[in-house]
DNA sequence: GAATACCTGAGC
DNA sequence: GCTCAGGTATTC
């Protein structure tokens, strides 16, 4: 799943079901997904309650009442499901039960690119899952955005995908916000005016907010913590629409590869500097 | 930067 | 059977 709007939807749907509850059992079926070890996570979270459920970029952070943070990254296909019964599905790698006997947390991840981490303190979080992560993309102030993006060489799309620059944007929302802003994915930020970068900031915020409101994009297997898919995929203007007509101008949407990721854009609407 | 690697599944 | 897929880390 997982770009910022999807992860934020998981956060919002899981938080009410988890706050104040105390993990009592941790079962790990695939040890490599748990850092540093399943034993460390189990010992870390059992016996203290979840006091806060936060998100930074695509990373979920469950703060424990005593100390420490239980971090969850969904990778490409990770799902957190809160349910009374084990979902009837393959690839459930972690199950956490609670001392009240209520709904359990199930972590499912077919491609195994996600992970869980036990971070005993903020330093472990900063040096581990949060290492090198820039400010969260949602609500990033314009000045901060401009400061971090303007003047950079390289390709604009690669910069948007770089979690060190800002955290949370992935392939879908990079393509969608570039189209809305009328900017070509291959242009270098240093060749853009302040007005163009300001427009990009605006459209990125708007795209993230709309996606969030529609429950995220369910392209392959994304569902929230209650198993519900999002609907923003129906509002995609370019993502995975290569060969189809642009809704704005009717031109054929192109698909190219940038930073190893498939990239979709309208050659007419997004031709700044090209 | 680009290529590759980590995995499984869907779609053609 | 092949290609592609929301992510990230590591290589040259």
UniProtKB/TrEMBL annotation:
Active site: residue positions: 2-3, 58, 261
Location of the Formamidopyrimidine-DNA glycosylase catalytic domain: 2-114
Residues bound to DNA: 91, 111, 152
Enzyme Commission identifier(s): 3.2.2.23, 4.2.99.18
Catalytic activity: Hydrolysis of DNA containing ring-opened 7-methylguanine residues, releasing 2,6-diamino-4-hydroxy-5-(N-methyl)formamidopyrimidine; 2'-deoxyribonucleotide-(2'-deoxyribose 5'-phosphate)-2'-deoxyribonucleotide-DNA = a 3'-end 2'-deoxyribonucleotide-(2,3-dehydro-2,3-deoxyribose 5'-phosphate)-DNA + a 5'-end 5'-phospho-2'-deoxyribonucleoside-DNA + H(+)
Cofactor(s) for this UniProt protein: Zn(2+)
PANTHER family for this protein: FORMAMIDOPYRIMIDINE-DNA GLYCOSYLASE
Descriptive protein name: Formamidopyrimidine-DNA glycosylase
Annotated organism of origin: Desulfoferula mesophila
Classification of source organism: Bacteria, Pseudomonadati, Thermodesulfobacteriota, Desulfarculia, Desulfarculales
Gene, per the UniProt record: mutM
């Amino acid at each position: 799943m997982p770009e910022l709007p999807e992860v934020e939807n998981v956060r919002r749907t899981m938080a009410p079901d988890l706050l104040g509850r105390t993990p009592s059992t941790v079962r790990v079926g695939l040890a490599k997904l748990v850092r540093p070890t399943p034993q460390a996570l189990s010992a870390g979270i059992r016996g203290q309650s979840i006091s806060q459920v936060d998100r930074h970029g695509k990373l979920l952070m469950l703060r424990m009442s005593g100390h420490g943070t239980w971090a969850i990254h969904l990778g490409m296909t990770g799902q957190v499901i809160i349910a009374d019964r084990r979902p009837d599905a393959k690839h459930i790698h972690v199950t956490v039960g609670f001392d009240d006997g209520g709904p359990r947390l199930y972590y499912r991840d077919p491609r195994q690119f996600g992970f869980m981490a036990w971070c005993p303190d903020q330093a472990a979080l900063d040096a581990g899952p949060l290492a090198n992560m820039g400010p969260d993309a949602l609500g990033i102030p314009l000045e901060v955005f401009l400061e971090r993006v303007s003047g950079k060489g390289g390709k604009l799309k690669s910069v948007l995908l770089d979690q060190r620059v800002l955290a949370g944007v992935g392939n879908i929302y990079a393509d969608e916000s570039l189209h809305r802003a009328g900017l070509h994915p291959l242009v270098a930020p240093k060749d853009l005016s302040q007005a163009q970068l300001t427009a990009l900031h605006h459209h990125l915020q708007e795209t993230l907010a709309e996606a969030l409101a529609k429950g995220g994009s369910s392209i392959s297997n994304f569902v929230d913590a209650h198993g519900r898919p999002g609907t923003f995929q129906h509002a995609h203007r370019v993502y995975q629409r290569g060969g189809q007509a642009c809704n704005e101008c009717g031109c054929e949407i192109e698909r190219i590869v940038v930073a190893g990721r498939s990239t979709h854009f309208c050659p007419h609407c997004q031709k700044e500097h090209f």
